[in-house]
Amino acid sequence: MNSQNSRYTVRLAGPQDNAGIREIFESGSFSGGIDLQYLRGDAPFDSLKADGDDVRILTADDNETGRLAAVGGAVLRTEYLNGIPARCAYLTGLKIHPDYQGKFYRIAESYQFLGQQLQDCACCYTTVLDDNERVIRMFEKHHRNMPEYRYLGHYTTYCFHGGKKLLPLRTDRTADFEPLLHMYYSQFALTPCRPDYPGFGKQRFFSYSRKGELIACCYVGDQSRTKQYKLCSYGSIYKTLAKLPVQLLGYPKLPEEGSIIHHGVVSYLYVRDNDPVICRRFLRSVAAAAGFSVLIWGGFETHPLCKALNKMRTIHYGSRLYEVLWDGAAPAITGKIGMEAALL
Predict the structure, then answer these.
(1) In whole angstroms, what is the distance from residue 115 CA to residue 324 CA?
(2) Rounded Cα distance, 176 and 169, in Å
Protein backbone atom coordinates (compact mmCIF):
# COMPACT_ATOMS: atom_id res chain seq x y z
CA MET A 1 0.00 0.00 0.00
CA ASN A 2 2.25 2.77 -1.27
CA SER A 3 1.25 5.78 -3.31
CA GLN A 4 3.68 7.56 -5.65
CA ASN A 5 5.83 10.25 -3.98
CA SER A 6 4.68 9.08 -0.56
CA ARG A 7 7.22 8.98 2.23
CA TYR A 8 5.55 6.01 3.94
CA THR A 9 4.61 2.48 2.96
CA VAL A 10 1.86 0.88 5.03
CA ARG A 11 1.94 -2.91 4.84
CA LEU A 12 1.28 -6.11 6.75
CA ALA A 13 4.03 -6.91 9.22
CA GLY A 14 5.80 -10.19 9.90
CA PRO A 15 8.32 -11.70 12.33
CA GLN A 16 11.11 -9.93 10.44
CA ASP A 17 9.78 -6.65 11.86
CA ASN A 18 10.28 -7.63 15.51
CA ALA A 19 13.19 -5.24 16.09
CA GLY A 20 11.41 -2.22 14.65
CA ILE A 21 8.16 -2.98 16.47
CA ARG A 22 10.06 -3.46 19.73
CA GLU A 23 11.67 -0.03 19.32
CA ILE A 24 8.23 1.57 19.01
CA PHE A 25 6.88 -0.25 22.07
CA GLU A 26 9.91 0.78 24.11
CA SER A 27 9.61 4.42 23.02
CA GLY A 28 6.17 5.06 24.53
CA SER A 29 4.38 4.71 27.85
CA PHE A 30 1.00 5.08 29.55
CA SER A 31 1.08 8.50 31.14
CA GLY A 32 -0.87 9.45 34.24
CA GLY A 33 -0.39 9.05 37.97
CA ILE A 34 1.53 5.85 37.23
CA ASP A 35 3.66 6.01 34.08
CA LEU A 36 3.89 2.48 32.62
CA GLN A 37 5.55 0.96 29.60
CA TYR A 38 3.61 -1.99 28.19
CA LEU A 39 6.28 -4.18 26.60
CA ARG A 40 6.15 -7.41 24.62
CA GLY A 41 9.73 -8.63 24.92
CA ASP A 42 12.27 -9.10 22.14
CA ALA A 43 9.69 -10.55 19.73
CA PRO A 44 6.54 -8.39 19.95
CA PHE A 45 5.06 -9.72 16.70
CA ASP A 46 5.25 -13.25 18.11
CA SER A 47 3.85 -12.01 21.43
CA LEU A 48 0.82 -10.50 19.69
CA LYS A 49 0.29 -13.68 17.69
CA ALA A 50 0.31 -15.69 20.93
CA ASP A 51 -2.85 -13.85 22.00
CA GLY A 52 -5.03 -15.39 19.31
CA ASP A 53 -5.41 -17.61 16.28
CA ASP A 54 -3.90 -15.07 13.89
CA VAL A 55 -2.79 -11.44 13.64
CA ARG A 56 -3.15 -8.68 11.07
CA ILE A 57 -0.44 -6.23 12.17
CA LEU A 58 0.37 -3.17 10.04
CA THR A 59 3.60 -1.21 9.97
CA ALA A 60 4.43 2.10 8.34
CA ASP A 61 7.90 2.16 6.76
CA ASP A 62 9.73 5.46 6.42
CA ASN A 63 10.94 5.13 2.82
CA GLU A 64 13.70 7.69 3.40
CA THR A 65 15.33 6.11 6.46
CA GLY A 66 14.11 2.51 6.44
CA ARG A 67 12.79 2.86 10.00
CA LEU A 68 9.34 1.86 11.21
CA ALA A 69 7.31 4.98 12.00
CA ALA A 70 4.17 3.31 13.34
CA VAL A 71 2.65 -0.05 14.17
CA GLY A 72 -0.93 -1.17 14.83
CA GLY A 73 -3.35 -3.87 13.90
CA ALA A 74 -5.54 -6.60 15.29
CA VAL A 75 -5.36 -9.94 17.06
CA LEU A 76 -7.92 -12.43 15.76
CA ARG A 77 -9.30 -15.07 18.09
CA THR A 78 -12.35 -17.25 18.62
CA GLU A 79 -14.64 -15.68 21.21
CA TYR A 80 -18.24 -16.06 22.28
CA LEU A 81 -20.70 -13.75 20.56
CA ASN A 82 -24.38 -14.24 21.44
CA GLY A 83 -23.37 -17.54 23.02
CA ILE A 84 -21.79 -18.87 19.81
CA PRO A 85 -18.05 -19.10 18.97
CA ALA A 86 -17.14 -16.44 16.42
CA ARG A 87 -14.04 -14.93 14.85
CA CYS A 88 -13.45 -11.60 16.59
CA ALA A 89 -10.75 -8.97 16.17
CA TYR A 90 -9.22 -7.00 19.01
CA LEU A 91 -7.57 -3.83 17.68
CA THR A 92 -4.33 -3.16 19.52
CA GLY A 93 -4.28 0.56 18.71
CA LEU A 94 -1.92 2.59 16.54
CA LYS A 95 1.45 3.33 18.13
CA ILE A 96 3.53 6.06 16.51
CA HIS A 97 7.22 6.46 17.32
CA PRO A 98 7.87 9.79 19.12
CA ASP A 99 10.18 10.83 16.25
CA TYR A 100 7.15 10.74 13.93
CA GLN A 101 4.51 12.29 16.17
CA GLY A 102 2.80 15.04 14.18
CA LYS A 103 4.56 13.91 10.99
CA PHE A 104 2.69 10.71 10.12
CA TYR A 105 -0.46 11.74 8.23
CA ARG A 106 -1.69 8.44 6.85
CA ILE A 107 -3.77 7.41 9.85
CA ALA A 108 -7.17 7.34 8.07
CA GLU A 109 -5.66 5.52 5.10
CA SER A 110 -4.05 2.98 7.43
CA TYR A 111 -7.35 2.30 9.18
CA GLN A 112 -9.07 1.77 5.82
CA PHE A 113 -6.39 -0.74 4.86
CA LEU A 114 -6.78 -2.52 8.22
CA GLY A 115 -10.55 -2.70 7.76
CA GLN A 116 -10.06 -4.51 4.47
CA GLN A 117 -8.00 -7.15 6.29
CA LEU A 118 -10.75 -7.82 8.84
CA GLN A 119 -13.77 -8.45 6.62
CA ASP A 120 -13.80 -12.11 7.70
CA CYS A 121 -14.43 -11.15 11.36
CA ALA A 122 -17.84 -11.12 13.05
CA CYS A 123 -16.89 -8.07 15.12
CA CYS A 124 -14.02 -5.72 15.88
CA TYR A 125 -13.40 -3.93 19.17
CA THR A 126 -10.75 -1.98 21.04
CA THR A 127 -9.99 -0.34 24.38
CA VAL A 128 -8.52 3.06 25.16
CA LEU A 129 -7.18 4.16 28.53
CA ASP A 130 -9.24 6.86 30.23
CA ASP A 131 -6.18 9.13 30.37
CA ASN A 132 -5.67 8.99 26.60
CA GLU A 133 -7.96 11.95 25.98
CA ARG A 134 -6.48 12.81 22.57
CA VAL A 135 -7.31 9.41 21.09
CA ILE A 136 -10.75 9.36 22.75
CA ARG A 137 -11.58 12.71 21.12
CA MET A 138 -10.42 11.38 17.75
CA PHE A 139 -12.56 8.24 18.09
CA GLU A 140 -15.70 10.04 19.19
CA LYS A 141 -15.53 12.90 16.68
CA HIS A 142 -16.43 10.54 13.79
CA HIS A 143 -13.76 11.68 11.33
CA ARG A 144 -14.40 11.12 7.65
CA ASN A 145 -12.71 8.01 6.24
CA MET A 146 -12.38 6.56 9.75
CA PRO A 147 -14.48 3.70 11.13
CA GLU A 148 -17.21 4.43 13.66
CA TYR A 149 -16.23 3.85 17.28
CA ARG A 150 -19.36 2.79 19.14
CA TYR A 151 -18.90 3.29 22.87
CA LEU A 152 -19.99 0.21 24.82
CA GLY A 153 -18.99 1.11 28.36
CA HIS A 154 -16.21 1.17 30.92
CA TYR A 155 -13.66 -1.54 31.69
CA THR A 156 -11.69 -1.58 34.95
CA THR A 157 -8.40 -3.39 35.51
CA TYR A 158 -7.77 -4.19 39.17
CA CYS A 159 -4.33 -4.84 40.70
CA PHE A 160 -4.20 -6.56 44.10
CA HIS A 161 -2.10 -8.88 46.20
CA GLY A 162 -2.63 -11.55 48.81
CA GLY A 163 -2.24 -11.91 52.52
CA LYS A 164 -3.31 -14.87 54.53
CA LYS A 165 -4.70 -17.92 52.80
CA LEU A 166 -8.36 -17.61 53.75
CA LEU A 167 -9.82 -20.60 51.90
CA PRO A 168 -8.56 -24.13 51.14
CA LEU A 169 -7.58 -24.22 47.48
CA ARG A 170 -7.05 -27.03 45.01
CA THR A 171 -5.00 -26.95 41.82
CA ASP A 172 -5.90 -30.36 40.39
CA ARG A 173 -9.59 -29.97 39.52
CA THR A 174 -9.40 -28.66 35.95
CA ALA A 175 -12.17 -31.09 34.98
CA ASP A 176 -14.52 -28.66 36.75
CA PHE A 177 -13.66 -25.97 34.22
CA GLU A 178 -14.86 -27.56 30.99
CA PRO A 179 -18.61 -27.54 31.82
CA LEU A 180 -18.31 -23.90 32.96
CA LEU A 181 -16.84 -22.85 29.62
CA HIS A 182 -20.05 -23.77 27.84
CA MET A 183 -22.62 -23.19 30.58
CA TYR A 184 -21.30 -20.00 32.21
CA TYR A 185 -18.53 -18.19 30.31
CA SER A 186 -20.36 -18.49 26.99
CA GLN A 187 -22.97 -16.04 28.33
CA PHE A 188 -20.37 -13.25 28.22
CA ALA A 189 -19.56 -11.74 24.84
CA LEU A 190 -15.87 -11.52 23.90
CA THR A 191 -14.84 -14.31 26.27
CA PRO A 192 -12.18 -16.44 24.53
CA CYS A 193 -13.44 -19.91 23.68
CA ARG A 194 -9.95 -21.31 24.17
CA PRO A 195 -8.26 -21.08 27.58
CA ASP A 196 -5.01 -22.40 26.10
CA TYR A 197 -3.90 -19.43 24.01
CA PRO A 198 -0.13 -19.07 24.70
CA GLY A 199 -0.73 -15.40 25.48
CA PHE A 200 -2.40 -16.38 28.75
CA GLY A 201 1.06 -17.44 29.91
CA LYS A 202 2.06 -20.45 31.96
CA GLN A 203 -1.15 -21.11 33.85
CA ARG A 204 -2.18 -22.67 37.14
CA PHE A 205 -5.78 -23.53 37.94
CA PHE A 206 -7.16 -22.71 41.39
CA SER A 207 -10.50 -23.83 42.77
CA TYR A 208 -12.46 -23.86 46.00
CA SER A 209 -15.09 -26.49 46.69
CA ARG A 210 -17.45 -27.10 49.56
CA LYS A 211 -19.06 -30.47 50.22
CA GLY A 212 -17.88 -31.60 46.80
CA GLU A 213 -19.48 -28.67 44.96
CA LEU A 214 -17.43 -26.11 43.04
CA ILE A 215 -17.77 -22.67 44.62
CA ALA A 216 -15.08 -20.62 42.88
CA CYS A 217 -12.28 -21.06 40.36
CA CYS A 218 -9.89 -19.22 38.05
CA TYR A 219 -6.67 -19.52 36.12
CA VAL A 220 -3.58 -17.48 36.99
CA GLY A 221 -1.05 -16.95 34.21
CA ASP A 222 2.62 -16.01 34.29
CA GLN A 223 3.02 -13.88 31.15
CA SER A 224 6.62 -12.83 31.73
CA ARG A 225 7.82 -14.51 28.52
CA THR A 226 5.56 -12.46 26.26
CA LYS A 227 4.39 -9.35 28.19
CA GLN A 228 5.95 -7.02 30.71
CA TYR A 229 4.89 -3.90 32.58
CA LYS A 230 7.78 -1.54 33.29
CA LEU A 231 7.13 1.05 36.00
CA CYS A 232 8.74 4.19 34.58
CA SER A 233 7.79 6.86 37.12
CA TYR A 234 5.16 8.07 39.57
CA GLY A 235 3.24 11.32 39.48
CA SER A 236 0.68 13.17 41.59
CA ILE A 237 -0.30 11.34 44.79
CA TYR A 238 1.46 8.12 43.76
CA LYS A 239 4.84 9.78 44.17
CA THR A 240 4.09 10.05 47.88
CA LEU A 241 2.38 6.67 48.19
CA ALA A 242 5.39 4.92 46.61
CA LYS A 243 7.42 5.89 49.69
CA LEU A 244 4.88 4.51 52.15
CA PRO A 245 4.30 0.87 53.26
CA VAL A 246 0.84 0.74 51.65
CA GLN A 247 1.00 -3.06 51.66
CA LEU A 248 0.37 -2.95 55.42
CA LEU A 249 -3.09 -1.56 54.59
CA GLY A 250 -3.83 -4.36 52.13
CA TYR A 251 -2.79 -2.60 48.91
CA PRO A 252 -0.12 -3.96 46.53
CA LYS A 253 3.38 -2.69 47.26
CA LEU A 254 4.24 -0.04 44.72
CA PRO A 255 7.27 -1.19 42.66
CA GLU A 256 10.44 0.85 42.36
CA GLU A 257 10.72 3.19 39.41
CA GLY A 258 12.46 1.49 36.48
CA SER A 259 11.50 -2.02 37.59
CA ILE A 260 9.54 -4.73 35.75
CA ILE A 261 6.40 -5.58 37.72
CA HIS A 262 6.24 -9.22 38.88
CA HIS A 263 2.64 -9.80 37.84
CA GLY A 264 0.23 -12.64 37.24
CA VAL A 265 -3.12 -12.38 35.46
CA VAL A 266 -6.39 -13.89 36.65
CA SER A 267 -8.58 -15.32 33.87
CA TYR A 268 -11.92 -17.13 33.75
CA LEU A 269 -12.90 -16.05 37.23
CA TYR A 270 -16.03 -17.81 38.48
CA VAL A 271 -17.81 -17.48 41.82
CA ARG A 272 -21.09 -19.30 42.37
CA ASP A 273 -24.01 -16.89 42.72
CA ASN A 274 -21.49 -14.02 42.32
CA ASP A 275 -21.11 -13.97 46.10
CA PRO A 276 -18.94 -10.87 46.82
CA VAL A 277 -17.60 -12.12 50.17
CA ILE A 278 -16.49 -15.46 48.75
CA CYS A 279 -15.05 -13.69 45.71
CA ARG A 280 -12.86 -11.45 47.83
CA ARG A 281 -11.73 -14.27 50.12
CA PHE A 282 -11.05 -16.54 47.14
CA LEU A 283 -8.97 -13.93 45.29
CA ARG A 284 -6.95 -13.07 48.38
CA SER A 285 -6.26 -16.77 48.88
CA VAL A 286 -5.28 -17.24 45.25
CA ALA A 287 -2.99 -14.21 45.39
CA ALA A 288 -1.28 -15.59 48.50
CA ALA A 289 -0.82 -19.01 46.89
CA ALA A 290 0.24 -17.82 43.43
CA GLY A 291 3.32 -15.97 44.69
CA PHE A 292 3.24 -12.87 42.45
CA SER A 293 3.82 -9.36 43.70
CA VAL A 294 0.62 -8.29 41.96
CA LEU A 295 -2.35 -10.10 40.45
CA ILE A 296 -4.44 -8.45 37.73
CA TRP A 297 -8.08 -9.01 36.84
CA GLY A 298 -10.29 -6.92 34.58
CA GLY A 299 -14.04 -6.59 34.31
CA PHE A 300 -16.57 -4.70 32.20
CA GLU A 301 -18.84 -2.31 34.08
CA THR A 302 -21.78 -4.74 34.09
CA HIS A 303 -19.76 -7.78 35.19
CA PRO A 304 -21.33 -9.03 38.43
CA LEU A 305 -17.96 -9.60 40.13
CA CYS A 306 -16.85 -5.98 39.76
CA LYS A 307 -18.90 -5.19 42.87
CA ALA A 308 -16.67 -7.49 44.89
CA LEU A 309 -13.45 -6.06 43.45
CA ASN A 310 -14.66 -2.52 44.11
CA LYS A 311 -14.71 -3.36 47.82
CA MET A 312 -11.21 -4.81 47.80
CA ARG A 313 -8.14 -2.68 48.38
CA THR A 314 -6.81 -2.46 44.86
CA ILE A 315 -4.93 -0.12 42.61
CA HIS A 316 -7.00 0.13 39.46
CA TYR A 317 -7.17 1.94 36.15
CA GLY A 318 -9.95 2.37 33.64
CA SER A 319 -10.44 2.03 29.91
CA ARG A 320 -13.22 2.76 27.44
CA LEU A 321 -14.49 -0.13 25.33
CA TYR A 322 -15.55 0.51 21.73
CA GLU A 323 -16.97 -1.65 18.98
CA VAL A 324 -15.29 -0.64 15.71
CA LEU A 325 -17.62 -0.49 12.72
CA TRP A 326 -16.38 -0.10 9.16
CA ASP A 327 -18.55 1.12 6.28
CA GLY A 328 -21.77 1.38 8.28
CA ALA A 329 -21.69 -2.21 9.54
CA ALA A 330 -24.38 -3.17 12.04
CA PRO A 331 -23.39 -3.56 15.72
CA ALA A 332 -22.71 -7.14 16.78
CA ILE A 333 -21.66 -6.90 20.45
CA THR A 334 -24.61 -7.05 22.83
CA GLY A 335 -25.47 -8.26 26.32
CA LYS A 336 -22.98 -9.13 29.05
CA ILE A 337 -19.29 -8.72 28.23
CA GLY A 338 -16.45 -10.88 29.57
CA MET A 339 -13.17 -9.69 28.03
CA GLU A 340 -10.06 -11.16 29.66
CA ALA A 341 -7.43 -8.61 30.71
CA ALA A 342 -4.73 -11.18 29.96
CA LEU A 343 -5.31 -10.80 26.21
CA LEU A 344 -5.73 -7.01 25.99
Answers:
(1) 9
(2) 14
